[in-house]
Amino acid sequence: MKLKFTWLGHSCFWMEIDGHSILFDPFLTGNPLAAVSANEVSPEIIFLSHAHGDHYGDTLQIAKRTGAKVVTNADMCGYLGKQGLENLHPGNTGGGWDHGIVHARFTQALHSSSFPDGTYGGNPNGFYLTTPSGLKIYFAGDTDLFSDMSLIGDRGVDVAFLPIGDNFTMGPAESLKAIHLLRPRYVVPMHYKTFGLIDQDGRAWGDQVSSLTNASPIVLDPGDSHEIP
Length: 229
Ligand code: NI
Ligand code: MN
What we know:
This protein is 22% helix and 28% strand. It is α/β, with parallel strands linked by helices. The protein has a single domain, classed as Ribonuclease Z/Hydroxyacylglutathione hydrolase-like (Metallo-beta-lactamase, Chain A), CATH 3.60.15. The chain has a seven-stranded mixed β-sheet, with helices on one face. Strands 7-8-9-10-11-12-13 form a seven-stranded mixed β-sheet. Helix 4 packs across helix 5.
């Protein structure tokens, strides 16, 4: 069993687990750093953390074309259903479900959530995933640091995906504190560099992670992949 993930830019990750593929927050069209176009990805499941355009992105188009199941909160499922999507799995903070490829639990995120047209998107989430072989993945979504990250850390985290862009989410300094609470083996930065308001130096952040935490940073360029055995 292995886990392979590819950064497609911003908070969009392509993840392969035991030959199956899942996609997070598919903001590709209009993303200046997008590594692929929306019609090049065919995931089995799309995990959508919240409704903001830089996460919701191409969800509708990809799900309609591929029939991928969209896992997101119940409020957003209501909206997506009205857009014609049928393969939806609604959840909410604290709830988990075994999707076969992964078990996914909705975590809290300190942020907001509305669709580009202004429709309310419910509370934003992160996801805590467990693969069939037991790898534990935390995808934080857009969030500030929160002390209950230590409870997520208590469950065990092999790989954490954390926003470091600042301005809309926690920044590099807070993410170091988050790493102390989460205690992941590996940590991957996201939600930075896409545009000026969230411009950060990923390599400099990685150096800080290496010297100040016990986690190994995995700093990718858009399009880069990494494999965890
Ligand atoms: Ni957001
Ligand atoms: Mn965002």
